[in-house]
Amino acid sequence: MQGHSHYVPTSGIGKWMDSRLPVPRLVYDSFIAYPVPKNLNYFYTFGAILSFMLVSQIVTGVVLAMHYTAHVDLAFNSIEKMMRDVNYGWLMRYLHANGASMFFVAVYIHMFRGLYYGSYKAPREVLWILGVIIYLLMMATAFLGYVLPWGQMSLWGAVVITNLFSAIPLVGPTVVEFLWGGYSVDNPTLNRFFSLHYLLPFMIAGVVVLHVWALHVTGQNNPTGVEVKDVKKDTVPFTPYATIKDAVGLIFFLIFFMWFVFFQPTYLGHAVNFVPADPLVTPPHIVPEWYFLPFYAILRAITFDVNLIIFTIPSKLGGVLAMFAAIAVLAFLPWLDTSKVKSSAYRPMHKQFFWAFVAVCLILGWLGSKPAEYPYTVLSLIFTGLYFAYFLVVLPLLGLFETPRKLPASIADSVLGKARSGGAPVTAGAAAAPQTKG
Amino acid sequence: MASVQHSEGDRRDFLYLATGATAAIGAGAAIWPFISQLAPDAGTIAAGAPIEIDLAAIPDGGQIKILWRGKPYFVRSRTEAEIKAAVDVEMSALRDPQPDAARVKEGHAKWLVIAANCTHLGCVPLGNQGDYGGWFCPCHGSHFDTSGRIRKGPAPTNLPVPQYTFISDTRIRITGAAATV
Description:
Number of helices of chain A: 18
Largest sheet of chain A: 2 strands, antiparallel
CATH superfamily of the domain at 34-277 in chain A: Cytochrome Bc1 Complex, Chain C
Strand content of chain B: 25-35%
Oligomer: heterodimer
Helix content of chain A: 55-70%
CATH topology of the largest domain in chain B: Rieske Iron-sulfur Protein
Shape of chain B: elongated
CATH class of the largest domain in chain B: Mainly Beta
Distance between the termini of chain B: 68 Å
CATH architecture of the domain at 34-277 in chain A: Up-down Bundle
Mean pLDDT of chain B: 89
Strand content of chain A: under 5%
CATH superfamily of the largest domain in chain B: Rieske [2Fe-2S] iron-sulphur domain
Shape of chain A: globular
Distance between the termini of chain A: 12 Å
Order of helices and strands of chain B: HHEEEHEEEEEEE
Mean pLDDT of chain A: 91
Low-confidence stretches of chain B: none
Number of strands of chain B: 10
Radius of gyration of chain A: 24 Å
Structural class of chain A: mainly alpha
CATH topology of the domain at 34-277 in chain A: Cytochrome Bc1 Complex, Chain C
Number of domains of chain B: 2
Helix content of chain B: 10-25%
């Protein structure tokens, strides 16, 4: 997709700069002349929305850091001071706290979009894996940030999550002591979490640059999954088409975001986090933020030792392994899905399995919010099995058994409705054939 | 003069290896302080010195929770019935088999001193609750008996007994954390 640059500097300064550090050329080629498939729908605006959210989180976060004190005796009060005394401190904090949730809303839509349209398939494997890395960094950042207000859920969330690492055989307890900088989650822990919470967003920004770079090398996928064949017929320039569409998507997203900020600013949080941290009292019900709930359900689903004949995986380690595997499996997705057809619009069976998978994730999220007792523990185990079955059983086998619908010859044809007249379904091999040439 | 080729390596190979090894050691030495600073500092270690606890203040059947090294510990004065319940359990019924006698000091079976962080993920279990009359962890549903042993739920091991000694009949000194977290 990356073709010859058509940037022509017009002014004298532009020419001078272009022969020294061609930043304007890079911007022109990447965000103005860059060709995007003409059939992109609104699900494709979430990349831009996520970029906006990253900048928003960094800007509000830098402001919050000016008023925050990373000390166990002062952190909670510094947040309350921010909420009451600092001009617009409440706004900055609610933008930041709800912004984290909105960031995850957007990233989940973005990821499910990728799953639905097969955006992870060749040649976009690296692009997808970079996305998984961004998602991991986002989760780390969100977790670290949630600890900073030093409320009850901050402390106990930190206790539960850092204790995950004690499940590592042999070195686990030492690793945890190095994470804490002491014998428990305490002041040294809070200090280093603050430092890392400030660092990670910039690492995310770095990986985002690679993510966008990889995107601009392969070009965007699109709702048909058919690659661009004729840049003139199949694409439109990024500006104004994608720019305006992204702006419209962003505006609607911001309305949703601002509704939370101004009308339900604490809805997505936990009431118990308004109680200062107390290492002597565990809240009756420890739950992570909503965006971690499916993984929390998977963590708690393994309540039994797994006997592998040669050795036994204790239940705690089993839960930790299952949770990390649930994220790691995403990185292998490009090779687990054997179907050559990308878009679920042309994969009648995958379309159903996809929505079933969405349901599985939502139900896991619901289970993660429930106490660890019957029947939720059994259900968690069943749905954890279904979660992994989608990646390890359904996707590998579906490519062999599914008969895809006939793909349009090109993006232009699909836009003009020519594909509909195609009619009869064809075999996977025949449907895939035009793509391999692309 | 033509250079002589030694199949077992010549002086240049040696220089490469020696330089490489020195550079690797140097890099390791430079990285180590960045790792080491993460460990508990001297102040934290000093604040974790042994602690003495007066048992006289604990009523029969009652328990106290103390904080040492930032972590809670239970000191429980067990009733006769609770001791009997803990002693009478079949070892085969335990996930982490340990007789009650191994978890208390000889002649002081009344006193149970255990770490109060659930061995699953570190929550503080609630006393006198659960199916076995000991503790119940509200986070992920582990049940502990009156000896602090895991009986049901996700926790892998018993609530660990810290290192402690009786200074007198009514006074103990906790000197070290238990072997496990």
